[in-house]
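User: Hey, quick favor. My workstation is busy. Could you predict this chain's structure for me?
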Amino acid sequence: MEDRLKVIKAKKKKNNIYYSSYNPASDLMYDIEDGNEDFLWMIYEIERLREENRQLKEFVEHVKGTI
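Assistant: No problem, here it is.
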């Protein structure tokens, strides 16, 4: 089974992400902001947490083996 994060990253390469929020003062009553940086940060954090989880699992197995 393919890693879901890889699938999401591949889809992200094809599309941009935007936020829209209601703003009655705006010309079209909505503000649109770029969300790509937030998305990339989220992907980075998921990858970092996966690596941290892997390292912690290795540590626990090592400790179990020494007891």
